Every structure is written in C-alpha cells, then in structure tokens.
C-alpha cells in the first residue's frame, strides 16, 4: 500500500520527461534514501508509482499465464471485474480514513463532492465499457494473436490524444521515441503467424483504430479529470472513479451473468489465483491513477511497455518460455526509446 | 558517370551528420538547381554520391534476384570479381584522362605515386580477401538466412571502429539512432526461420563477429586512406585501390578457377544479366569510394540500409514479393533512425 504513504501535493503538470528515470533502475536506491527538497520528493513519488505500475503490470500478465495453465476460467469475468472495482473503492476509503485520522477532514480530502466535480467521473468508465463491447465484435475480423498486435495502436493514439486534448508537448526526439516504442513493442510480440494481421479486412482496421482511440481517450480523459483539481486528494478522486466503475460493472453482471450468479453464487469458481488476480488488478488500477496524478499517460505507456518485456523475461524462468529473435530486437528498440524519451525533454 | 563531373575539393572531415538529408528526398531537386557557395557545392556532391550509392546498391540486389530467377550462376565468380575490379580501374583512368585534358597534370591528379602513399592501399583488399575466405567456413555453423541476419553486426562494428580508428564523434542521439538502425535492419529481414540464428554455436558467433570487425575495419581503413590526402584526386586514389583489387582477384582465379578458365575461357557462361551485374558492381564500388571521400562510413551504412528497404519494395512490383509485418516494423525503425541521425548532429 505504498500509495497511502504519499502526501498529496500540487502537480506542476509538465514534467513527464524525467519520470522515465524510474524505468532505468534508479528509483529504488533513491526512494530508500531519506529527506530532500520538494523537487526530490516529487521525483521520488513519481518514481515509486511508476515502478509500482511496472511491477504490478508485469506480475498481472504472469498471473494470467499461470491461471491459464492451471485450467480454464471457472469464475464469471463480470463478477471478478466488479470485485476489482469494489476492492479499489475499499482501499481508497481505507487510505482516506487514515488521512482523516492524521490530518483531519479538509476541503481537499473530504468525500462529499459537487455535481460539477463528479459529473465527468462516469465518462472514462463508460468509454472502457464501449471499448470492451467492441472487443467482442472485432474477433469476427481478427484472431487473438492479431488483436494483441493491433492493441499496440493504443501507444500511438495515446500520444496523439495526449498532445491534442491535454495540449502537452513532446519534443521531436520524444515523438521519434514514441513511434519506435510502438514499433518495438509490436516487434517483440511477433510470432510466425503474425503476418495474418496484414490480411485484416478494412472493418477490422477501423474497429481496431476506434478501440485504440477509445482506450487512449479514456486514459487521457482520466488524467484530465485527476489533474483538473491538483490539490484534491487522489484517494477521493479514485473513490469516485471506482464508484462509477462498480455501477457499470454491476450493470454488466445483470446483463451477462445474472442467472449464473443467482444459481451458483457470486464467488462461484473463485480459486486462490483468482483472488490474487483480483488483488493485483485492484493495485494496478490504483497505480495507474497514481501515475495519472503524479506523472502522465506517456509514463503509463512506457511503464506498461517495459512491463510487457519484463513479463516475457520472467516467463522464461517461471514457465520455460523461449525468447524469439524478434523479442530481442524489439527489446533493444524499446530500451533505446526509453533512453531517447529521457534525454529528449522539451527545453 | 556522375562522378567525373565532380571536382576534387578539401574535405572538412567532420560533417557527416547532414548527409543524411540526401536519404530524405531533397537531393534531386537541390542537385538540379544551379550555383551556390562552396558549402552548397559540398552538400550537393555528398548528396549525389549518397543517392547514387543507394540506387546502385538497391538495383544490385534486384539484379541478384533476377539472375537467380534466370537460373544458376554459369560463370565463375572469381572472373566476375576480377572484371569488376578491372572495369573500375578503366573507369578511373577514363575519368583521369578527361581531367588531365581539362586541367592539365598536377601534383594532385598525377598517377605516379610514392611508396609512402601506395603502401597502405593493399590493406583493404587483403582484409576483404580474409573476410571472404572466412565466409566459406562460417557456413559450417550458420545457414544462409542466418548469415544474412548476422551480417547486420557490420553496422555496429563499423560504428565502433569509426569512433576508435577515425576518432570521429557521434552524439548520444546518433549512437541511439545507430543501434536502432541495426535492430531495424535485422527486424526487416526476419522470416519465420530466423530464430535458428539463436542456436548458432559459439564458434559461429566468434566468426560472425570477426567477419563484422574485418569488414568494418576494411571500410574504416579505406576512409582513412582516402581522407589522409584530402587534395589528392579521388580517381587516382581509386585507381591504386582497384589495382590491388585486381591483383588479389587474379590470385583468387589462379587458386580456385584456373582449370575452368583455361578450358572454357575467361568469359564462359557470361549472360546479359552477368554483364549488367558487373557494370552495377563496378559503379557501386566507385560510389562507395566517393562516399568515403566526400561523406563517411556512417553515411555508407545508412545508404546501404535504406537501399535494402528499397530493394524489398521494388521487388514487390517486379517479382510479386510479399512484405511481412516485420518488414514494415523494421522500415519504421530504420526511417526513425535516419531522422534521428540527421537531427542529432554533434554541436
């Protein structure tokens, strides 16, 4: 629960560039040292949340592989999603309770809100819902490995929407780095059947692009919501985000799995791995929010890209996976991209 | 014979960075415009030789595919190599004759030389000979497609030797660009069986690295020889380089194909395509020398890398080749590398 220790602070809102340091191994030692000025504290906080997101995301993928090896999904995915949102809500409330105890209730950390503040909170959850619905239809045009490849379009859409909606600038070197990040991630995921994706019909491409835009927009919009009120406590902001997440996922349960839940029970088929996955998803979700608050969407994309590579390397040891030449080449390109992003700050 | 029109000029020896402009489509229009100062002329000359090398190298590969489609090699490779060297010698002499006619014989363009000048000229030819001999042995450890992949190590070895031997600096962005150039070229050449290369035994890796170093060293050493006397006419320098090329290739004929040449004749099995290939190799060889004189090894590497991509694209139209997803990804990475190299100049 690293995030509960973090104090809320104003966000300068334009210092994404040096966050990437955290992906190059420095943060652990720095985070361990004590003291330092406000810049130091900010940098430390960014590093910690970015590192947390990277580790959580890579362990997420490993849990998925593990659960697949252990057998089929026995539980209903909609109840698991609801549980994740509920757990995130509970964790945010627990964090808030602690803060209220220590600092008392202030304007920034009180739970009550205004319509003006809360009205935008359902939008990201709604966008993700639409994207998840589309996901069922895109498989009519693209197979699952092809979909994994096309998902890398998210990187480009996030970069473009970050520029257009948040009006934040990347330097030309950072743009170049972002393009090769997308190419490198895709390269690392290539397998002998990847070329099928080139036969994707136009409808498949359009849906993939729409999904990438929805996903990118949801991410960028979440950042906009969270950063709009810099002094507002992140746990309050998270609480309201997750409340709407619960509402949308409750609707999904009713529509898709109502009978199963009534007949077999809400937690039917949950195993130890299922609980671990829910816990991991909840913590990852909170880490994403923290990265949005203290860093930005670009850092999030780099963090999850590096996590994808870490997952593959860890899978070699855990599951005896073989790394392909394409993976090595993609990893080199992603590493250079991280380096270029960090040296290419807007001056 | 574009190169005959180029006048010899002093070389500033440290302006590789902007040559890459020529790979981004500008040179044709600029080369067509008249006039301009000495900087303009230098830039024009660099652009023309770089463009010539790119076009010649890509058409070289296309001729090879064409000749393979037309049937097996009927001619002896050693006589073809000798013919290339002889043709380059003849072209250099023809260019010199023209210059002597126009400008008279000077210290810089006279053919006669000193032992001090000429003693280093056999070295590149000897290095290439050793490399070509090794080539026969490496196939005991690596298959032909794997060898194509490993040849990309040349890019890295050239960069390192360029830094160490010529003591020329690349900026950190240019180094990053060079690393992704190597990764991008390799990615573009990936095919479903490329992963075999990861099973290459240690001996194979050692030989591949030695060959990359020999090839890189030969290239860098040629540049050092040619740039050592900036005012010396390039056609004289080429003449002496190619004379030793003829000597080494004559030795190769005697060792490998003496009987065949005596019994069937020197030009046995030559077809129209063979003649075209010899002409193309000769012109490409001269273009390489010109790039060494007026640009450098880094430009040469970029030029041949872009040529590799051009070849593949042209082959789609000529031979109905299919481009793989890996090719697209590699091309994106190579393009970004070209861009980064050009904006990443040492200041």
Briefly characterize the structure.
By secondary structure, chain A is mostly helical. The first copy, chain A, is 71% helix and 0% strand.
Descriptive report:
Two copies of one chain form a homodimer. The two termini of chain A are 35 Å apart. Chain A has one domain (2-343). The first copy, chain A, has helices at residues 27-32, 38-70, 77-103, 115-118, 122-138, 144-150, 153-165, 172-188, 202-228, 234-264, 272-294, 297-319, 325-343. In chain A, helix 7 (153-165) packs across helix 9 (202-228). The first copy, chain A, has 13 helices and no strands. Chain A is globular. Chain A is an all-alpha fold and 347 residues long. In chain A, 71% of the residues lie in helices and 0% in strands. The longest helix of chain A has 33 residues, at 38-70. At the A-B interface, helix 8 and helix 13 of A face helix 8 and helix 13 of B.
């Amino acid at each position: 629960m690293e995030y509960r220790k973090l104090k809320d602070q104003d966000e300068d809102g334009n210092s994404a560039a040096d966050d990437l340091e955290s992906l190059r191994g420095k943060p652990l030692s720095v985070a361990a040292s004590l003291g330092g000025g406000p810049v130091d504290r900010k940098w430390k906080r960014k590093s910690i949340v970015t590192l947390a997101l990277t580790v959580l995301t890579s362990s997420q993928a490993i849990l998925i592989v593990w659960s697949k090896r252990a057998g089929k999904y026995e539980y209903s995915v909609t109840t698991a999603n609801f549980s994740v949102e509920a757990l995130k809500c509970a964790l945010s409330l627990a964090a808030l309770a602690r803060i209220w105890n220590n600092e008392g209730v202030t304007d920034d950390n009180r739970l009550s809100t205004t319509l003006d503040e809360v009205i935008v909170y359902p939008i990201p959850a709604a966008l993700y819902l639409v994207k998840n619905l589309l996901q069922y239809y895109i498989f009519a045009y693209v197979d699952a490995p092809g979909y994994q490849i096309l998902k890398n379009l998210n990187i480009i859409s996030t970069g473009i929407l970050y520029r257009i909606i948040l009006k934040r600038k990347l330097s030309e070197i950072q743009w170049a780095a972002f393009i090769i990040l997308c190419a490198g991630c895709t390269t690392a995921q290539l397998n002998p059947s990847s070329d099928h994706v080139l036969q994707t019909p136009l409808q498949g491409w359009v849906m993939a692009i729409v999904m990438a835009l929805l996903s990118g927009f949801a991410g960028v919009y979440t950042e906009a919501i969270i950063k709009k009120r810099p002094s507002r406590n992140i746990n309050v902001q998270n609480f309201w985000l997750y409340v709407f997440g619960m509402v949308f996922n409750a609707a999904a349960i009713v529509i898709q799995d109502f009978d199963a839940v009534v007949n077999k029970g809400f937690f039917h088929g949950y195993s130890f791995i299922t609980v671990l996955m829910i816990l991991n998803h909840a913590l990852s979700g909170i880490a994403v929010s923290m990265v949005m608050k203290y860093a930005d969407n670009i850092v999030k994309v780099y963090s999850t890209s590096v996590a994808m590579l870490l997952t593959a390397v860890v899978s070699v040891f855990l599951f005896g996976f073989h790394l392909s030449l394409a993976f090595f080449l993609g990893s080199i390109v992603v590493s250079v991209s991280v380096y270029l992003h960090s040296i290419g700050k807007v001056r």
